[in-house]
Fold this sequence. Notes:
The chain has helices at residues 17-29, 38-41, 71-84, 109-117, 190-193, 279-286, and strands at residues 4-9, 33-37, 51-53, 64-69, 90-94, 123-135, 138-145, 148-152, 160-166, 169-176, 178-182, 205-211, 221-224, 229-233, 242-246, 250-254, 258-272. With 292 residues, it is of the alpha+beta class. The mean pLDDT is 93.
Amino acid sequence: MLSRVGIVVKRGLTAAVPHLNSAIEWLHTRGVSVVLEEDTAQIVTTNSPYTVTTRDAIAGQVDLILVLGGDGTLLAVADRLGDASVDVPILGVNFGRLGFLTEIQLPDLMQTLELALNGQAPLYTRVMLRARALRGGSPYVDHIVLNDVVVTKGAISRLIYLSVYVDGAFVSDVKADGLILGSPTGSTAYNLAAGGPIVHPSVEALLLTPIAPHSLGNRPIVLPGSSLISVRPAAESSPDEMFVTLDGQRGFAFTHGDEVIVTRAERTLRLVGAPGRSYYDTLRQKLHWGER
């Protein structure tokens, strides 16, 4: 039985207030302590007791995190769990439009929460990525992400040139709008929009997907999960800065002399699944398979 549950609500999501209040009250009646992230505490209207902490600190204070929002909110929490090296499952409730990660629907919230408290809810392990950036050979970024690492152009609209290496072997120079280095979980995120393959989350793989490549020969590729991917600005690359974004949550400038290294992280993430619902059910619903 879990004793402390953290709750994080998407910033500004007032539609979640009644469900947030109900969850706090429901947990209180079952003797479960509630810990709210600071912004979430600002919208609570129930008198049931709870404590407040920061989004960065909540992972180390609870046994489960309930996320009310969309995939972006869940990614923000997941990345903090990864960086904190804390193994706390996330139960994501979808308030967004797509929700590949926040797969629990509102009508199933309390049932799934009760199953999670009793240790009966399905738990799925997801591979995470470790992204490191070097400048002049010295590290200046080191983070854990769930979905993807994306290299894109800066403010000026032009192609970027990147040299890609896998396990020390040169793969190709990529001329494109950008490049996605993704996990299987991230295959249904930006990778999917860029024409990359859908990869089942249980597959040990890493993905390389060019964004709008200049050459039709630059195609997405699925790599072994043990691969070490290195991306550098190509020799003929413009001196203009490029940018690297991590799960769409944070980013940094990327220019000549820099290198981004992506590997599978030692840390994994656990997601609470919807009872009686498979990964294929989610794909079929979200991608409208079989509809006419």
